[in-house]
Amino acid sequence: MSPRVAALSKPVEEPEVTSPAVRTWLYVLTFLVALMVVIGGYVRLTRSGLSIVEGNVITGVLPPLSQAAWEAEFAKYQQTPEFQKVNFNMTLDGYRRIFLIEWAHRLIARLVGLIVLVPLAWFLARGVIPWRRAGVYIALLALFGFQGFLGWFMVASGLVDRPHVSHYRLTIHLLAALTVLAIAWWKALDLTPRFAAARRRAAHPGLRKLAHALLAVAVLQIAYGGLVAGLKAGYVSNTWPLMFGTLVPQGLLSALQPWWQNLVEAPATVHFIHRWFAFVVLTLALVFWWRTRGMDEAPTLRQGSLAMVAVVVFQILVGIGVVIWSVPLPVALLHQGTAVVLFAAALFLNHQLWPRR
Asked: Are residues 186 and 211 in the same domain?
């Protein structure tokens, strides 16, 4: 068979999506998911997340519209561990405040879900996204829906016998949100000519491994941030660099048995790990920047590595502020938002080093 005949006999692959509308949609989704992470942090820090005790997807769109409806919702909340153990002095007016915060949180999540679903359906119906290229976009929609289920799964853990949600479920909920963000962000970069053209070929396998390691430690550090939030471990110490008057407090691995449970369940230990593991992230970011500083042929990668160092340094400084000021709401939200930026920056470096087909 001649080369010409062989080439003609190969199946023709659908071209990559090139519509600017799809690219804009993906960037908007990336921003909205990041915003949802910060809003979720606000809900948690205001102790509003357990105020709505039912997961009604349709009927929960509207808040209570009458005095009787408000009293009925308040009566349901009064049966929860949070009211009985923490907010037992709360009045109906106080309940309205936390209810509306959580209601707005869920409403925004529903609206973001529509922003995922409706444009995607239109793109598929019009052929803007070919069906043979639709798998990743349908996965994005499915993961967003699953993220909604995880949100209720997390809330349900705080409605039975304890006045707070499971720190494991909270962390899983956070990481699932970052997974949705990662897909949207990666595909948006794929469809941006500047970043797609700058993507390096498989010429730096060592640098790619370093980028993978940087992303892995960033995700681990963010996961520990979720554990800190769920355990309220940010409040255990308001001094830095010392904790309880010493650099390495005693009993970090002996508070719980077996010892390894301290790594994920003891507030002081989780706080200590999250506090100092940030410098592991910084070290890898500095090494990556050092390896790329002379790569004049890859300015996007070089600039991205410098931005990564800047974000990590800023995040560490904000984290120290969270500690010494005892978790003030604005600084804590800034810390959470910067964590999302840090994750996106690490993902960007991996994207630029991912081999092109």
From this structure: no
- Does residue 331 sit within a domain? yes
- pLDDT for residue 17: 63
Residue 99, domain extent: 17-191
User: What pLDDT was estimated at residue 197?
Assistant: 78
Name the residue among 325, 329, 328, 236 with its Cα closest to residue 274. Answer: 236
Among the listed residues 133, 200, 136, the one whose alpha carbon sits nearest the alpha carbon of residue 348: 200
- The pTM (predicted TM-score) of the whole model is 0.91
φ and ψ at residue 246, rounded to 5 degrees: -145, 160
Contact (CB, 8 A) for 314 and 155 = no
Cα distances (angstroms) measured from residue 232 to each of 47, 158, 211, 228: 11, 14, 31, 6
10 Å CB burial of residue 62 (0-12, 13-18, 19+) is exposed
Per-residue pLDDT of 310-320, as tens digits, reads 999 999 999 99
Compute the average pLDDT of residues 247-258: 93
Task: Tell me how many domains the chain contains.
Answer: 2
Rounded CA separation 267/164 (Å): 14
Helix, strand, coil percentages (3-state) for the chain, rounded to 5, are 70, 0, 30
Q: Among 191, 223, 241, give the residue marking a domain's end.
A: 191
Radius of gyration of the chain (CA): 23
Give the chain's mean pLDDT.
91
Could you give the angle at the alpha carbon of 31 between the alpha carbons of 48 and 337, nearest 5°?
A: 55
**Do 131 and 30 share a structural domain?**
yes
Q: Specify whether 106 is located in the same domain as 227.
A: no
Bridge partner residues of 243 (DSSP): 246
| Judgement on whether residues 116 and 252 belong to the same structural domain of the protein | no
Q: CB 256: neighbour CB atoms within 10 A? A: 15
